[in-house]
Amino acid sequence: MKNKAAIIVAGGKGLRMCGPIAKQYLPVAGLPVLMHTLAVFNRVVPAIDLILVLPASDFPYWEELCAEYKFTLPHRVVSGGNSRFQSVRNGLEALTTEAILVAIHDGVRPFVSDQVILESFVEAERTGSAVAVVALKDSIRKLRDDGKSFFEERQYFRLVQTPQTFQVEKIKKAFKVTELQQFTDDATVYENQGWQVTLIPGNVENIKITTPEDMAYAEFIALRKLADR
Ligand SMILES: Nc1ccn([C@@H]2O[C@H](COP(=O)(O)OP(=O)(O)OP(=O)(O)O)[C@@H](O)[C@H]2O)c(=O)n1
Ligand SMILES: C[C@](O)(CO)[C@H](O)COP(=O)(O)O
């Protein structure tokens, strides 16, 4: 029974990568980024319902890539929206009635660990939500509009990753609102209902491939993972 689902959002344009093709399709260790991401969810939760959100105009290109790379992992493709919020909402609308838990994950985070995915489902089942976060390694300063800056205690901050995993009923309700500027992820949409999110430890390799210098590090992590198998 497909009571666990994952919505892999890849409906963005990847403008900060400044490349001729969107970053979610770039090859890393010989395979497009998105294929790494789909493969890890399929491996960790074999019966998962995988929903891939892509810009509608990229559907033919994705089909071509799947044929070229002989990529046959089962997944459904859904149209993205103009913002990440809208892409997630489209993914949520595509869930079947069987789904009880859903992991929402950036397609451009291919190095999420097996442990983080598994723990996110366990915690979301127990508490309603599970949001992967990591601690900061550097000192931080808060900037003010007048140009001054101030020390902040880093132990009170976390960097937010995905997956952000939820009980389907709750996250679907949370997304039935008008989009707000603070909705940069799914945790902010969930807590807009007045519900507290549960944080779980993410993994440091779970980077969001964003700018050109991320590609060299992504290649390094991918090759190291392949060597470890
Ligand atoms: N309309 C959008 C915008 C973003 N995303 C997805 O949300 C994830 C995180 O977003 P980000 O890294 O900001 O991707 P882009 O919006 O593509 O990047 P940029 O801001 O550089 O254009 C990505 O997997 C991206 O494809 C999406 O599904 N739909
Ligand atoms: C969802 C997210 O990846 C968590 O860190 C992040 O908020 C996406 O932000 P972006 O500015 O759209 O990349």
TrEMBL record:
The record marks 16, 23 as: Transition state stabilizer. The keyword Transferase applies. The record marks 154, 208 as: Positions MEP for the nucleophilic attack. It comes from the Bacteria. Keywords: Isoprene biosynthesis, Nucleotidyltransferase, Transferase. One of its GO terms (molecular function) is 2-C-methyl-D-erythritol 4-phosphate cytidylyltransferase activity. InterPro entries: IspD, IspD/TarI, IspD/TarI_cytidylyltransf_bact, Nucleotide-diphossugar_trans. The keyword Repeat does not apply. Signal peptide: none annotated. GO terms for biological process: isopentenyl diphosphate biosynthetic process, methylerythritol 4-phosphate pathway. It catalyses: 2-C-methyl-D-erythritol 4-phosphate + CTP + H(+) = 4-CDP-2-C-methyl-D-erythritol + diphosphate. Pathway: Isoprenoid biosynthesis; isopentenyl diphosphate biosynthesis via DXP pathway; isopentenyl diphosphate from 1-deoxy-D-xylulose 5-phosphate: step 2/6. Its EC number is 2.7.7.60. Catalyzes the formation of 4-diphosphocytidyl-2-C-methyl-D-erythritol from CTP and 2-C-methyl-D-erythritol 4-phosphate (MEP). PANTHER family: 2-C-METHYL-D-ERYTHRITOL 4-PHOSPHATE CYTIDYLYLTRANSFERASE, CHLOROPLASTIC. Belongs to the IspD/TarI cytidylyltransferase family. IspD subfamily. This is 2-C-methyl-D-erythritol 4-phosphate cytidylyltransferase. It comes from Algoriphagus ratkowskyi.
